[in-house]
Here is the input.
Amino acid sequence: MTATSFYQRLTVRRDVLTLLGGILFSLAFTALIAWAGSRLDAIELLPDQGEAWYYWKLPEPTFWTHFSAWGLYLAHQLTFWGLIYYAQTYVRRYTTGLKPVNLVALAMTALFIVLHFIQTHIWYDGLAQDVSVFSSQNSVIVLLVWVLLMENNRRGMFFGRKLPVGKEIVRWARTYHGYFFAWATIYTFWFHPLVSTPGHLIGFLYMFLLLLQGSLMYTRVHTNRWWTLTMEVIVLVHGSMVAFALGDGLWPMFFFGFGGVFIITQMHGVGLKLWAKLVLLAAYFGAVVAVYSQLGWSRITEIARIPVVDYLAVLVLAGLMGGGLWIVRRLQRPQST
Here is the structure.
């Protein structure tokens, strides 16, 4: 081994180093939100009014509470869309180093995270004051479903077997996913004030990591299969923790529902050996038996709800994309004279 090759093996790739730094920043800022959260406890909120009610919003919003949330959200959203357009137009090549667009994206992401923190502690309200609570939840659900569709040709949909989706649909989903993912992530980030409940904290950490992932566009680490799998699986932790904190007894539905998607689809995209897959499958069913033998077997069907919804949503999303592409082709077809 030459001295040069030895040095190259010891050298940490810049994109990997930046990813690790971004993860540390995300953890540190989540800790800051937790530490500062007690400052917001004095704010009086309206009583919880049910499933469709978002609790963390001011009873009497003002012009400035609306303007601060929407103004900063739009600035964040448009900035990131502009960076994606620039990267797709002028970069279009994956490397292990960072490009100027990555440095700008990382700096803007950190800036808007800090601005949202300041905005929360001055004006409190997020976008939730003006839009449905389901809009935030559904935006992230569609993001995760979009990933399932986008990765269909690489890892399959059902135990490595591909769903018969047209290549053009998958190509379109891969080409333009950044715009939707940026909207879903940034919209959800500004939907909430930066309060410090356990559910919010794990959610903010997830948003920070998704924003970091977007900022590393056109780097090799952006497509690292273990890292992207981690981004998908974190929703299992988040959903289960929030459900457990609510105390409604539905945490197994989220844990085993998202766990089922992992077993059926996601674990088949990282090159695991057959024995490793069998171990994970056995661990999953072992956990199901252990939990539902205590909860009652009448509830066992709830583990299928999330997978069924996700896979049906993949078909719907593919159909919408395919229909849109068909319409575009019809409109672009030369008219006969």
Summary: Confidence is low (pLDDT under 50) at residues 6-10. Residues 78 and 183 are 9 Å apart (CA to CA). The first helix runs from residue 3 to 10.
